[in-house]
């Protein structure tokens, strides 16, 4: 699956515009995309809008009706006039499709402009009654491929089996904080497959769901994959390495200093930049499905400049190996130059 374009309408600092991801030279949809621009221009909001629409799509597949009033996706999306994702290379022999949410005039204009496209989503129309707009669900007439997608998603959420459905990973910069666990430390728990559809990182003092707990669960369930991932992580640690041996009863991972003293410390004692590397490598390795889309807000956050290029190259390779699409934001000029040359860079201007 690939995002072909994003249409936004009266969308805060983004305004009303189209982000076209087709490569100007090859005519193909770009697989590595960068949003750059000054603070407050809407880079992070663009990524969050994509994630919110994908979360809403999960509801539409399962329930075939508009988002409920309590929905976080509805609360966030209705703050804009409209947003639409145009998707291609879909599973189950699906045609080109647009996921959308917005005002009636925005949706109807897109339907007229792209009559060959299948539309899934909902529009909102003012009725004159405050707080009670009319809502309409959009669903294709010939939707047998969406029925198959619904069944695949249902299986994905309750099983660890390989899925036929792509997914999305959204890693927000402000949410990728490292907090030492305080409760339930050392317990071995199976990871929750409910996060396979839309994976994110949520900071918590609870051991369950923390990166270290997840790595230990992987060690128990998929030892070869665990060793490969630790090797990837160690490549970005300077003068130290994460040990793969775990002391029974302690059930914690240790980091060994390569200074000949044998000194070790916990993952909690790594630097902020090292924590960022571990979080991102783990979540992409563990949760990205074939054909998935990975959205990372400032993947270079806290990283030493010498690590940025190599780390991005590793993320790009991981996503490419699974036939996916990587969309990031960055304030780093080196990253701008990289995506000018090797991907597609979209420069946003500051809000007037």
From TrEMBL:
AAA+ ATPase domain sequence ranges? 29-352
| InterPro entries found in the cross-reference section | AAA+_ATPase, ATPase_AAA_core, Bact_Antivir_Def_Nuclease, P-loop_NTPase
Query: Whose protein is this, by species?
Result: Thiocapsa rosea
Q: What GO molecular functions are on record for this protein? A: ATP binding; ATP hydrolysis activity
In Swiss-Prot or TrEMBL terms, this protein is called: Putative AbiEii toxin of type IV toxin-antitoxin system
Q: SMART domains recorded for this chain?
A: AAA
Membrane-spanning segments: none
